[in-house]
Design brief:
The chain has 3 helices and 9 strands; from the N terminus they run βαβαβββαββββ. With 179 residues, it is α/β, with parallel strands linked by helices. Helix 2 links the parallel strand 2 and strand 3. It is globular, with a radius of gyration of 16 Å.
């Protein structure tokens, strides 16, 4: 693993840009989920900071639970999906909002949507801070998108490279990335 000082990082989104967009997303979600029970499912680990900021900007009552789904190892998307789905039977009949940090190919999201759909929710929507439309390969609509980005590996604001960078307040392009 590279030492953090050896990483070639380029600033991509500032803390202020992120904060303003997350506030807008929270307002939009609050205005659109006016009926029914809202259950937010945050996908760990990368979405924990985004989730914390977003739910503080959602003004309607909601429940929040966490799940862990992973297909990355370092900077490469793997073929296997690791998961810890902790739904406790709370999904049936509720409006579900999945919160993701970043969606690229959509493989992990497709898996998660399939598992949630089996639990008979009233509806399922997705909020992602970052989305890579150039590599996204599924028909599922991403209802709330913070920023559409090119196919670059990014770290910061909860997202990491081998456990480095989650604490960075801004989002950086990891220039050592080779697709």
């Amino acid at each position: 693993m590279d030492h953090p000082a050896d990483l070639n990082l380029e600033l991509y989104l500032t803390e202020i840009e992120i904060s303003e967009r997350v506030q807008e997303m929270g307002e939009q979600i609050s205005s659109e989920f006016t009926s029914g029970k809202l259950l937010i499912i945050s996908v760990l680990n990368g979405a924990f900071i985004f989730t914390a900021d977003l739910v503080r900007n959602i003004t309607i009552n909601h429940e929040l639970i966490f799940t862990k789904v992973r297909s990355y190892n370092g900077i490469r998307s793997g073929n296997e999906i690791e998961h810890q789905l902790m739904f406790d039977g709370r999904i049936k009949g509720k409006n579900v909002l999945i919160i993701e940090d970043i969606i690229d190919t959509g493989k992990t999201l497709d898996f998660l949507l399939g598992e949630i759909d089996k639990k008979e929710p009233a509806s399922i929507s997705v909020a992602a801070l970052l989305w890579k439309p150039d590599v996204y390969g599924y028909p599922h609509k991403i209802r709330y998108v913070g920023f559409s980005i090119p196919h670059e590996f990014v770290i910061g604001y909860g997202m990491d490279y081998n456990d480095y960078g989650r604490n960075l307040k801004d989002i950086y392009i990891f220039k050592n990335y080779k697709s």
